[in-house]
Specification:
The structure holds three protein chains of three kinds. Chain A has helices at 2-19, 44-63, 83-95, 107-120, 147-160, 176-189, 210-218, 230-242, 285-297, 305-324, 332-342; strands at 30-37, 71-78, 100-102, 123-126, 140-142, 166-172, 195-202, 223-226, 248-251, 273-276, 347-350, 353-357, 364-365, 369-374, 377-380. Helices cover 42% and strands 19% of the residues of chain A. Chain B has helices at 8-41, 47-72, 80-98, 104-130, 135-153, 200-218, 221-231, 233-238, 243-266, 279-292, 297-313, 321-337, 339-352, 357-369, and strands at residues 157-161, 164-168, 182-186, 191-192, 271-272. In chain B, helix 2 (47-72) crosses helix 10 and helix 4 runs antiparallel to helix 9. Classes of the chains: A alpha/beta, B mainly alpha, C mainly alpha. Chains in contact: A-B, A-C, B-C.
Chain lengths: 382, 370, 294
């Protein structure tokens, strides 16, 4: 008896769980944009930044009359940086009436979601999914640079400016972003006359980099290339300084944000160079307005490049929808057919540069900016 | 686990329960299938739930197979996700390597066999040294093996061209392939582009097969031998039961079934990498087993379904979702396992079903102190 | 000289593992449970110190003491609310799963309170570095303090367990709870005391960990926690010198295999060594081999 009541109780609970949430929430006359990214879990910093940047753009657009006269609604879902959860999040947003997707934020989940979105013919614009496989279908576009582009551009920059010839690399082998950049960097290094003297990975242990740094030091690297995110980079810089190792450090767009790490001793980042499409210290009016609005809306948080990518992504969607003269009554699939053509026609003057898209590949065209950190500020290198 | 035996009455009761549960399990699975499949056919299902169907099958199979080790064999394994990982990788590699050379159905069936066989083989290889250990030491070594598998797959690169297969542990560039060659395993990036063959129906069939294997094993001579080792290893050894052999049998079958779960997982998503299969996933599966009741297959099925669906159903809570999940987990554990809570529940029950209350209460207490 | 540098790094990392492992091993020895939430107590300790230093301007030593107090209270509360009711549960796995729940809970509370962004840890330890052989080997102040703290803690703990009344009570409870109770030992109090000590150590470990690798996130404690757990098993779980030696060996093996074999499979090597050790000595380096009775 006792067992049976338990089983029945659990079955009833299960049935309740299963039957909830079949209704679609889409409002009449509103474009519904979905955004997926990690809001909890170890990669939450990136997801939160994207959600914030996107929300800011949507609020601005709504305040100034919307898209083609229609208001925009942003619905978001958490994927914890997990491919499976990301597909669940995608399905959840579809249930809630999503018409196009800004996301996903991180590469591996993006590849999985892109497979689903291609089947549904759902328009996908990833702000920051930089792995090549993120946008295989013609429904998919991205705002950030693809990994190979960043790696090659970094090598070219170092070669052309004669920064160093002996290069040490530390990369995150568990991250497609980092590995992708490293591979293209190594491939390009030869033709730029660069010699890679040490190439060391880290994966599970994300706190101790002394062994990798020591190898670079022993190999007399003049420049250490750090194609990964700023949180780990902050540790690398600290540990290098502790061991008295002071080469030039060079990072990619993931390095952006290092000056915003709370309590970080910015003197450690002195002389650090990075290639990034966005810097919160840029002088232009647009960036300054964005940073001010972002800080005000989100408790003084300084935006990182992810937020800027998302902001540009929403404006790219707006431009494409306007180019196609679309309205919210169209289905997701109809919108996708229109937008994937329109993406080739538009130019977005965004925070991350002037961007155009190649509709065949979905890749953005924009120029990376190289900056060096001097006195705790970004200084442009061009 | 060490304290679980010693009480023959408890064991007998558990066995009777299992026998009755055998049929019930098939009924539950088929019933759920009938309801959900009808919902899918008639379009009365949310995309979220539809997308969850295959993952639910994956976790049910994983939980059932782990229950074979934890519940029936009485060993604490924290590396179950490692076997899923092996099954997923080997089958995804197979499917990608074969490509369109075989028809979809045949290729997928073969992929399931490949995944199960390779995972089973790893189960034997790992089981031989590991099963000599006991209790928490065994737990930590299984955790270690899970991490080792993950770590080694992270540096594995493989590709295929007209000369056959190429492997490397350094980088994609070291594969030395012809320009027309295809990279299949890309180190830590894993495998992408695996054909999406997993369906709910296949998942249900695999659950039924898993149930059949596990239940038949429990009720066989081997199963009784395994349980006798669990309840008292020394006594079992002294009457001539080859303890290690039977433990190894259960362990490798469990690994092989976990491999099946991995195959299902790999053929459901376009990406596969090892991150998914770390100790957190092993622990998650263990949570299913413990929450559902150690040795209780029905419980494993239900716990796996609810705990997989719960975080998805809590999405409306946004940032508080995982916090609520954690609290629910702690509360359920206290409610289901704490002797005090069990006492209180049996007192409550005896107030409701007055005539049979007292006996139950005593049993419960015994159960608690065993 | 580079070998010495690696060795020093290994000992420093290992010392942190050792302090965490001491907490693990004491709790295991007495409550026979794997406290998976132990790693997250480290994270709490680190956040408390960080907040006190940056937001309240409390001096370093005082901040560490307050953090130890906070973690102690936290540890005792966790034990009382989540673990004690399950002490007599029919399966020891029940409390293990609850510990996992507590671990998720602490991580998600931290996530809501402090956000997901990593916060850089400020210097608590302000000692100059030592330099040998013209800068070829530099030992930072943090490293020196870490290693010293590890040794002092181990000595104090050993003395405490072997020389004091409470220490004897701990040994008695760890040996046989029921018998200890009959002999007049306050079992609940003793277990609470063990959790208190373990959690206070976790706070110290949090400060040292984050001084050496200065970033705090809600997940800071998880991986070191697992590694320390491995270290505790390595040395023989339940043994205080075992946890110490296990932790340091683990750190050294990890750094040396990163340096001389491959940074990518370093963890596989660490775990591989663990497996070999356990196969040769199934209860760890210093574990007691308890003969099972029929």
């Amino acid at each position: 008896m006792k067992k049976m009541t338990k089983v029945i109780g659990i079955c009833a609970a299960a049935a309740m769980v299963m039957t909830t949430g079949t209704a679609a929430f889409a409002e009449e006359g509103t474009f519904t944009i979905g955004a997926i990214g990690p809001v909890t879990g170890a990669a939450a910093a990136y997801g939160i930044s994207v959600m914030n940047g996107a929300q800011l753009a949507v609020d601005e657009i709504n305040a100034s009359g919307g898209i083609n006269g229609y208001q925009v609604e942003l619905i978001t879902a958490d994927d914890e940086h997990d491919a499976e959860k990301s597909v669940n999040a995608y399905n959840d947003l579809k249930d809630k009436g999503m018409q196009m997707l800004l996301g996903t934020v991180t590469s591996a989940p993006c590849i999985a979601v892109e497979g689903e979105a291609l089947n549904d013919n759902m328009f996908l614009l990833t702000p920051s999914g930089s792995a090549v496989d993120c946008i295989t279908g013609e429904n998919a576009f991205r705002v950030c640079f693809a990994d190979p582009a960043q790696g090659a551009k970094s090598a070219q920059f170092i070669g052309e400016h004669g920064l160093a010839t002996k290069i040490g690399i530390i990369y995150d082998s568990s991250d497609p972003y980092s590995t992708g950049i490293m591979e293209s960097f190594v491939a390009e290094a030869d033709s730029q006359g660069l010699e890679v003297v040490s190439n060391e990975a880290f994966s599970d242990n994300r706190t101790d980099f002394s062994a990798q740094l020591n190898k670079a030091k022993d190999a007399e690297a003049e420049l250490v290339f750090l194609p990964f995110y700023y949180q780990e980079a902050a540790l690398v810089l600290k540990q290098a300084s502790d061991m008295g190792f002071a080469p030039t450090f060079f990072g990619c767009d993931g390095m952006d944000g290092i000056l915003t790490v709370e309590n970080f001793d910015t003197s450690l980042a002195e002389g650090l160079m990075l290639l990034t499409p966005f810097t919160p210290n840029a002088e232009d009016e647009m960036t300054q307005n964005f940073v001010a609005a972002y800080e005000e809306a989100f408790d003084g948080l300084v935006p990182i490049q992810f937020g800027a990518d998302a902001y540009d992504g929403i404006y790219a969607m707006k431009a494409a929808l306007e180019d196609a003269d679309a309205n919210p009554d169209m289905s997701a699939s109809e919108l996708c057919d229109l937008m994937k053509v329109s993406m080739g026609n538009i130019t977005v003057e965004g925070l991350t540069g002037t961007i155009t898209w190649d509709p065949a590949t979905g890749e953005p065209e924009k120029e990376p900016k190289a900056v060096v950190i001097e006195n705790g500020e970004y200084v442009s290198q061009d | 686990m060490r304290d679980m035996g010693n009480n023959t009455e408890l064991v007998k009761r558990m066995r009777r329960k299992t026998l009755r549960g055998n049929l019930l399990n098939y009924v539950i699975v088929l019933g759920a299938y009938a309801i959900l499949q009808t919902m899918v056919m008639t379009g009365n299902i949310s995309s979220l739930l539809k997308g969850l169907l295959v993952p639910l099958c994956v976790y049910v199979i994983a939980a059932l197979s782990l229950n074979l080790v934890v519940g029936i064999s009485g060993e604490l394994s924290l590396g179950h996700a490692g076997f899923m990982c092996v099954g997923a990788y080997s089958s995804a590699f197979f499917s990608n390597a074969v490509g369109t050379a075989l028809p979809d159905i045949l290729r997928f069936i073969l992929a399931i066999f490949v995944g199960a066989a390779v995972a089973g083989l790893f189960g034997i290889l790992i089981g031989i040294p590991v099963l000599r250990l006991k209790g928490d030491y065994l737990a930590i070594v299984t955790l270690a093996f899970g991490e080792i598998i993950k770590n080694l797959l992270n540096v594995l690169y493989a590709g295929i061209d007209s000369n056959g297969l190429h492997f490397s542990t350094k980088s994609a560039m070291d594969l030395g392939m012809e320009p027309t060659g295809r990279q299949i395993i890309k180190g830590a990036l894993g495998i992408s582009g695996t054909p999406k063959n997993s369906t709910f129906t296949v998942g249900i069939i695999l659950i039924l097969i898993t149930l059949m294997v596990v239940q038949n094993l429990i009720n066989s001579r081997a199963g009784r031998a395994i349980m006798s080792t669990r309840d008292n290893r020394i006594a079992a050894e002294s009457i001539g039961i080859p303890v290690t052999k039977y433990k190894l049998l259960a362990f490798s079958i469990s690994a092989s079934l976990a491999g099946c779960a991995g195959v299902l997982y790999a053929h459901n998503l376009a990406t596969l990498n090892t991150k998914k299969f770390d100790y957190n996933t092993s622990i998650l599966i263990l949570v299913f087993v413990v929450l559902g009741g150690i040795g209780n297959l029905t419980g494993s099925i239900i716990a796996a379904v609810i705990l997989t669906a719960l975080p998805e159903m809590l999405r409306f809570l946004n940032n508080y979702r995982m916090l609520i999940y954690a609290i629910v987990l702690i509360v359920i554990m206290l409610f289901n396992w704490a002797p005090a809570a069990l006492d209180m529940r049996s007192r409550l029950r005896s107030r409701i079903f007055k005539n049979r209350g007292s006996g139950n209460g005593k049993e419960e207490e015994q159960n608690g102190n065993a | 000289m580079s070998f010495l540098t690696y060795l020093k790094d290994g000992i420093s990392l290992g010392s942190v593992y050792a302090i965490i492992a001491l907490g693990y091993t004491m709790v295991y020895g007495i409550a026979k449970m794997l406290n998976f939430a132990h790693g997250d107590v480290i994270m709490v300790g680190a956040y408390v110190v960080l907040m006190l230093l940056t937001k309240a301007g409390v001096p370093g030593i005082l901040a560490v003491l307050i953090a130890m107090a906070v973690c102690t209270v936290l540890g005792i509360t966790i034990e009382k609310v989540a673990y004690r009711p399950l002490r007599k549960a029919s399966s020891p796995l029940a409390v293990l799963i609850t510990a996992i729940g507590v671990s998720y809970l602490l991580q998600n509370i931290a996530l809501l309170l402090f956000g997901a962004d990593g916060k850089t840890f400020v210097d608590v330890i302000k000692l100059p570095s030592l330099s040998f052989g013209d800068g070829a080997l530099i030992i930072s102040g943090t490293t020196i303090v870490t290693i010293l703290a590890c040794i002092i803690i181990m000595v104090c703990l050993t003395l405490f367990v072997n020389k004091t009344r409470q220490g004897h009570a701990m040994q008695a409870v760890s040996e046989d709870k029921d018998a200890a109770q009959l002999m007049g030992v306050n079992v609940n109090g003793t277990i609470s005391l063990t959790f208190a000590i373990g959690s206070a150590l976790a706070a110290i470990a949090g400060v040292l960990l984050c001084s050496a690798y200065p970033i705090v996130t809600p997940y800071t404690g998880a991986m070191p926690g697992i590694k320390a757990f491995v270290a505790a098993v390595f040395g023989g779980i339940g043994s205080i010198p075992g946890a110490m030696i296990g932790g340091i060996l683990l750190g050294v093996i990890e750094i040396l295999s990163k340096a001389y074999i491959s940074s990518q499979v370093a963890d596989a090597i660490v775990f591989g060594v663990l497996i070999v050790v356990l196969l040769v000595k199934p209860t760890g380096l210093f574990g007691r081999n308890i003969q099972e009775k029929v």
